[in-house]
Amino acid sequence: MQLLPRAPKKLSAPELRRALRDRFDIRVTARTVERDLVELSALLPVHSDAERGTKPYGWSWQQDADPVELPLMTPQAALTFHLAERFLAELLPPTALRPMRPHFSRAKHVLDELHREGLATWPDKIRIVGRGQPLLPPQTDSTVLDAVYDALLSERCIEVDYRKRGSDSLEHYLVHPIGLVLRDRVAYLVCTTEGTPVVRSLRLHRMQSARVTERARTVPADFDLDAFVAGGGAGYRTGDASIALELRVAEDVVHTLEETPLSHDQRITPLPDGCYRVLAHGADTLDLRGFLKSYGELVDVVKPHWLRAEMAEVAAQLSELYRDAPRPPASVRPSEVPTSARRPLARSPAPRQHEKKRKRR
């Protein structure tokens, strides 16, 4: 029964006989397999396409049938299935989720039978929360999702109609899919496009249509998806190379960076003025700028000098923008850090040397 596929897939009695021999060393005739299947179909949701009249008949589990478990699903296994359905649905392709639905349904039934005790209440005690302002996920066409997942699984090219940000027209690409990255509930297809070896990322929700072709994809030699992501490939890069950061941060910030470092090579040293020097390497991305801006007066960019100048320009623009804004009382000013603890950094000495601002891509 483990060998039987779920409809619409099917296996004939001769195919099942060969599988029994090759996988389990069970040697029976195709006629014996056929007779046993007929008897089992009266007890289990198993059926054949005998009505088509073409032999050999194909056998399968009914598409919506509950899985037959030997042994029965344990509460621990049911909890695992339930959490997988809840938190991994966005990570799995639809074609992989469909065969799992009977198991998800069975898991829910097992947990319901526990009468809301013990493991049954565990899903109510778990939440996954992203950092920063939560945003609703963009809407992605389901046919685009199916095509992208199919292309990734079959390693074939896809033709895509893509609308760039702020554009009213569509760009047509022949895409060589490499991998999928999910970031802040936004799905990115890591790929190359026909005619260029440069690896890029396309947002799935900006794809207006996608069609899988019969052409095999081509992946650049020595490409590493983990290295691509670590280098900021799934974000908005503003420069090609890694940058060496030197920050001067307040004590409130250093606690966060000790627990969640900026990079593997991060180093923190105390300064005589009560602040801390932070040294780290990282990708030149808008995410880095967003992180630095989020701490406001608690983080001072010392190096690179061009980034310091860029942050100073942003600060000047913000000062001009809010020039006429009334200053609220400290007691009602919302902040992640209590107002009494947000001690602005004293001005650091001006750097003696200035680097030319990097050419933006």
In terms of topology, how is this protein built?
Blueprint: E1 11-12, H1 13-24, H2 30-41, E2 46-48, E3 58-61, H3 75-88, H4 94-97, H5 101-112, H6 142-154, E4 156-162, E5 171-183, E6 186-193, E7 200-203, E8 207-216, H7 225-230, E9 237-249, H8 251-259, E10 267-270, E11 276-285, H9 286-294, E12 299-303, H10 305-321
Antiparallel strand pairs: 1-3, 2-3, 4-5, 4-8, 5-6, 6-7, 9-11, 9-12, 10-11
Can you describe this structure?
This protein is α+β, with helices and mostly antiparallel strands and 361 residues long. 30% of the residues lie in helices and 23% in strands. It contains 10 helices and 12 strands. The strands form 3 sheets. Strands 7-6-5-4-8 form a 5-stranded antiparallel sheet, with helices on one face. A 4-stranded antiparallel sheet has the order 10-11-9-12. The termini are far apart.
Which tags fit this structure?
10 helices, 361 residues, alpha+beta
